[in-house]
């Protein structure tokens, strides 16, 4: 279930932070990794989005340990 009290800006801030995993974002906001990526693509400038995707793509820190 999504937390409607959290703004897009707060989700973007969490996603931009290297220490916050997609799993933590989902637990807090209800947004899945796919939802976060879609939000980032929609809300950010294309160059900023590409920079962010390059940085987090395949990064272990963006996922909780299994």
Q: End-to-end distance, in Å?
A: 23 Å
Task: Please state the CA-atom Rg, rounded to the nearest Å.
Answer: 11 Å
What is the helix/strand order? HHHH
> Looking at the structure, what is the overall shape?
globular
Please provide a written account of the structure.
- The protein has 66 residues and is an all-alpha fold.
- It has one domain (8-62).
- The chain is 59% helix and 0% strand.
- The chain contains 4 helices and no strands.
- The longest helix is centred in the middle third of the chain and has 11 residues, at 33-43.
- The radius of gyration is 11 Å and the shape is globular.
- The chain starts with 7 loop residues before the first helix and ends in a 10-residue tail after the last helix.
- The mean pLDDT is 88.
Structure, briefly:
The protein is an all-alpha fold.
What are its keywords?
mainly alpha, 4 helices, single chain, 66 residues, globular
